[in-house]
Amino acid sequence: MGILDGYRVLDCSIAMAGPFAAQRLGDLGADVVKVEPVTGEWQRHVAAGGATGNRINVSFLSLNRNKRSLAVNLKSAEGRAVLLDLVREADVFVQNYRPGVAARLGVDYETLSALNPKLVYVSMSGYGESGPYVNRPGQDLLLQALSGAMLSTGRAGEPPVAAGQYLVDAVTAYTAFEGVLAALLHRERTGEGQRVEVNMLDAITTLQMQELSVFTVAGKPQQRSAEPHAHVFIRAPYGTFATADGYLALAFPPLAKLGAIIGEPSFEAMNDETDTWTHRDAIFARTRERLLIRPTAYWLERFAEADIWAGPVHGYADLVADPQIAHNGTFVEYDHPTEGRVKTPGFPIRFSKTPCAVTRGAPLVGEHTREILAAAGYPEERIAALAASGAVALGEEA
């Protein structure tokens, strides 16, 4: 039994941030009901990276394990009534509809909290529930750009560099996940539910707590270098460098030590706290030239001997085969009824008494509609009538 066993989550979200947050709740043992249209959630039909599956594409598969699927037409009165019945007994409701959509569907906080005052209602958005940007598209790359994050890396005068992951979606998901847990704790203490608002802009902005404080408190400008320094507020050398046979990452080594190892005598007279800022580009360039002479393994061995912070630059194939990843059990493997053997990242939190587990893979559309409604007290004839009217879809079993 997971730590959230006994809690019911209604996941009405789409794309990445909302489903990822709800999946984390499912990993902790909550009963997560994926509420999706009768034709399936949008993410089922858009394969990230072109990775399709047998009946479930990899994108949906990766964000919807440990959930059951209820396929329901919320634009119909009958379908909406089904959802409201489930809300009465639910603990958490998650949605990331466009502004105004929840109210039009009759699933806004005011409506649902009147039915269930103990409900934790999570509303996720791109920029907030109101304000000048309320109708802008909440897309990861656009938020990376708006938040200032991109202008902390890369070369001055060249286009800003985006993260290689859906960074804003991921941090927003974890922010919502954190908010749910805090709100449930509040409910345990007081018996009352509440509305939890999370938006992508605030999530990625507050993630940059240290960098933005350097700017707002100390007044230090966000100024990129001519060399591809990895962070505007960290002294040189700091970044990734090519070697004779690959790449390595190097993090602010003591200059005298570094100079002695790579054969750059000019570093030995430099001051780590002043010259590393005033001569940042020159230090980076000289380090780059010297590291090209030898292979990665040679430099990493020498740096380790000198207690200099350096490490390899992994691709995904290297990461999956990494011995520490294997030791940690970072990836989980399980058998999915339609997609076969699945290997995906597992659980970042470990509990000694209530461990996380994959109890079910991502569901087919409406795979659990009948099961969920029957458990909610719907007789079989009413379920059949709802399916016949198009208010719900029973789907196919795996």
TrEMBL record:
Transmembrane segments: none annotated. Pfam families: CoA_transf_3 (PF02515). InterPro entries: CoA-transferase_III_domain, CoA-Trfase_fam_III, CoA-Trfase_III_dom3_sf, CoA-Trfase_III_dom_1_sf. One of its GO terms (molecular function) is CoA-transferase activity. It comes from the Bacteria. Keywords: Transferase. This is CoA transferase.
